[in-house]
Amino acid sequence: MQIQKVSCFGAGYVGGPTMAVMASKCPKQTFVVYDINEQQINKWNTKQYPIYEENLNEYINKTIEKNLIFTNDIDLALKDCDIVFLAVNTPSKSYGLGAESQLDISYIDSCLQTIKKYPLTRKLILVEKSTVPIKTCDYINAVLKNQNICVLSNPEFLAEGTAIQDLLYPDRVIIGGSLESSQQLASLYEQWVPKDKIIFTNIYSAELSKIVANSFLAQRVSSINSISIICDKIGADVNQISQCIGSDSRIGNKFLKTSVGFGGSCFKKDLLCLIYMCESLQLEEVAQYWRQVYLLNEYQKQRFINLIITSMFNCLRNKVIVILGVTFKAKTNDTRESAALMIIKKLQEEQAILRIYDPQGKIDNVEQCQSLDGIFQGASAIVIITEWEEFSKIDYVQAFNQMAKPSYCFDGRNLLSGDLMKSIGFLYYGLGRV
Ligand code: NAI
């Protein structure tokens, strides 16, 4: 079968960029991105992209009037389609058994119900691109039994902030499921990904690999954050520790930056999914091991909040605090599970007056400043939550001169030079640094 038409359910952080890059690399195929959310589709079609990602517009511009379509029309998506990617959201369940830990596949389910009703006229390869609980493929097969459908797992490993680069040059592409269909899917990737980077596995391994990858990355963050806590007690510097251990090629130097904790839509929910799976399999010791990675992350956020409140002598009421960054990391507009959400809530409880700024991110129902202009005037503290480059370029001497005294700076990303900030006059607090 020669693949001609590919569709993707879900026009979000994964569906939009993934299909734009695929369309640019596979000019002979047509790519249709379908979403039930009309507003979301309108934004893609009017260049008011719902997500911020470097170089994304270049890839959309290249393809949008050629072989890339964003639509709410299910017929346009499914008619004569060869491959459908499911890239809809799979948040943690918020209800019932497994609430707050198991992934909610009800959005996947609604896609299946739509596909089930549609009169397919040819074989369809249905691809799990969303991160799903293990054995979701069995559920899909059960729902779509007797239809000419082959289910594959092809998890997405892109990271927000570097999505386009990650899609152009993936470390690997994992495809799990029947070999014949896997090879058909691989024929798309082979148009730009070297063959030796495409790994064929059984379908359960492919599903599990995504959950495990995110859990390992979360574990790295919690590991270095746990060391930052020790450093704070003994006067060592966690940045130096990262450099010392990261130069060991067995450990590697990535993901060794201490921070106010990991956020984002994926790490927490995928880690909790792994924990839930271990518990369901009665593997309590394994579950406990991974649960600690999650708990340490919560602790790190709480520790940072406590640091702010206690350093300011528990007296934040009516003090102006400048919050720099609300996104969970730089170079994205995504605020899901950002540490900012918890920090803002706790500082509001302390009755502080918040001035919040982020170059891209917006939090619902919270007033934000449009720029840094005048933001430091009369403020008692600066709290850095996101590592936007813009924040390292601020003239902190000028900021200090405008601020109330004493002037605090709580750097949740170790973004600034502590020595420099202290020399300006700030009471500067980083994480795990002297
Ligand atoms: P998102 O929330 O940005 O987008 C999901 C989209 O699916 C929404 O626009 C929603 O309207 C749409 N949708 C929901 N039900 C639908 C239906 N029945 N038919 C058509 N569209 C429907 O989600 P995001 O971040 O793109 O994540 C999607 C999946 O990819 C999740 O499973 C996530 O865990 C996974 N993933 C996310 C990454 C990320 O960095 N955001 C990276 C790798 C994987």
Describe, in plain words, how this protein is organized in 3D.
One of its GO terms (molecular function) is UDP-glucose 6-dehydrogenase activity. InterPro entries: UDP-Glc/GDP-Man, UDP-Glc/GDP-Man_DH_C, UDP-Glc/GDP-Man_DH_dimer, UDP-Glc/GDP-Man_DH_N, UDPglc_DH_bac, UDPglc_DH_euk. Pathway: Nucleotide-sugar biosynthesis; UDP-alpha-D-glucuronate biosynthesis; UDP-alpha-D-glucuronate from UDP-alpha-D-glucose: step 1/1. This is UDP-glucose 6-dehydrogenase. With about 425 residues, this protein is α/β, with parallel strands linked by helices. Helices cover about 40% and strands about 15% of the residues. It has 16 helices and 13 strands. It has helices at about 15-25, 40-45, 55-65, 75-80, 105-115, 135-145, 165-170, 180-190, 205-235, 240-245, 265-280, 285-310, 340-350, 390, 395-400, 420-425; strands spanning about 5-10, 30-35, 70, 85, 125-130, 150-155, 175, 200, 320-325, 355, 380-385, 410, 425-430. Strands 3-2-1-4-5-6 form a six-stranded parallel beta sheet, with helices on both faces. Strands 10-9-11-12-13 form a five-stranded parallel beta sheet, with helices on both faces. Strand 9, helix 13 and strand 10 (about 355) form a beta-alpha-beta unit. Helix 1 packs across helix 3 (about 55-65), helix 9 packs across helix 11 (about 265-280) and helix 11 runs antiparallel to helix 12 (about 285-310). The radius of gyration is 23 Å and the shape is globular. The termini are far apart. The relative contact order is 0.09. The mean pLDDT is about 95. 1,4-dihydronicotinamide adenine dinucleotide (NAI) binds next to helix 5.
